[in-house]
């Protein structure tokens, strides 16, 4: 074969490689955008779990008062979608940590939490997580899946499924 043929093949190959490289850079830009969004969603998820599960026992009280519940719910509301917040509030979920802290007479603290992302789009993010919730010398390992949606430019928790029965067991055992 002629020299011109090999030069032609080399030029085509080089152009093809350059085109692939340009396309690859564009994918990195899109991935970076999604990664930034996932980081923001993960930060919201972390804030939510801390506000939902961390609590101190009330001072000199034998019961949780409505003001404590209202204060807790107010701090959580901005992190969730309206539907999810209303459902959790109606089910008294945001009282659980307060009640467990009162029963155990100990602070509830998340001492470890790890999130893994899955099913990520620009408007939704599903995170699986594992957390350690400590109260005194005792601890619970929590495993769950949280879904966040982008609403009005902000990430909001729209669902959170985890082994909450372990917390309810503390509350119900001492009722």
TrEMBL record:
<protein>
    <recommendedName>
        <fullName>Lipoprotein</fullName>
    </recommendedName>
</protein>
